[in-house]
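Pair request: fold both.
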Amino acid sequence: MKERILQEAALRFFREGFARVSMDDLAGELGISKKTIYQHFASKEELLEQVLQQLVQGIDRDVCAILDEEQADFIQKLTRLFALLAGRLSQLSQAFTRDLQKYTPEIWKKVDERRSQMLQKNFRRLVAEGVKQQAFRRGFDPQFFLLSYLTLIRRFINPEMLSELSISPRQAFENIVNILMEGVLSEEARMHYKPRKFALDAFSKDVLQQL
């Protein structure tokens, strides 16, 4: 039951925003009483925090699976990784990111800290593979690139900036990736890397069809 509540809350929150979805709405959609929801979650805010925690943990798990693929080279992993992240970000509506800023900034702060730790760990590993396979231009500075990437992600893919720019999380992510990667990849690597539009992974397609 807890998992069912989390799944329904994720779909409704991501699509309609946090403020517009009530516990009564979720209970009605699930065919259960509101009391049942409160048996698993003390408040709507706690439910939101666990939804976001589950999202971040799922991304971390799937990213690690991509990085562990022994048969894939750096460009293949890079493409799959960015497609995965773009697909997950496609789940989040502008209404949802606006509500995070307005109603639950403290929850966003916790999620952002976990997100930053995950990105730093996984992207450092990916960049190390790229350096080993000579996929970057001569003079490439891995540490500076990592810092630039993480700074841009935190600066632009956050509720306040997304609200100000009136763009979706996915649009912001694609712009950051395209600008950064086209500037640092070697000529040979760029021939195999197609950055413009990322194809959605199967999970994200299923989610979007339900939205």
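--- second member of the pair ---
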Amino acid sequence: MLEINNINVYYGHIHAIQNVSLVVGQGEIVTIIGANGAGKTTVQKTIMGLLRSSTGNIVFAEEDIGDCSTAKIVSKGIALVPEGRRIFPRMSVADNLVLGAYSRKDKLIQSDLDKMYQMFPILYERNKQMAGTLSGGEQQMLAMGRGLMSRPKLLLLDEPSMGLAPVLVSQIFRTIVEINREGVTILLVEQNAKRALTIAHRGYVFETGRVVLEGLAKDLANNDEVQKAYLGE
């Protein structure tokens, strides 16, 4: 579904992503793990057209999207749930969700809104509430629901468990698995490597802008280097 081939991304003179290639197959959960500053978020921003690679290409559904605008990329079926949620705090929960469907022209938006309320019942209870008054966990659910309202084929999740209590982390990861079972392919960036490798099919380990390990999630979870560096074992 998604192929990234030999991309290099710079922030000014800083070489943030160095010759990175990765693949996400249809129906998979693929996770990227690594320390802060390893380049995980930069890869997702580059996929979304928020940053540009100086080399290589990004292919989605057999089409090169490297020169597409972010809006065009969303319309092709990719959505990003960004780090820090980035909900619109002075808009209602309902309006935040509907905004996620801004690029759609079909008549199924209300039906999908109802699905979001079924997936996240607390959002239905809070649907008229200003989004900025939600708890951190509720805001994360809202950000995920907003992303799903675009009907993505591929959902990019950036640090969905950040700052959440353990019970909410478990709930968010269960929801990610549920979304995947509904047919949405997922590329997950996550510092909670142990939980990410538990639900993912495959994974990539980033260090200073490079892929240093890749493989089945279960194999990475049992790798001595990964355990020492990221799993606290």
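Observation on the second member. The first strand starts at residue 2 and ends at 11.
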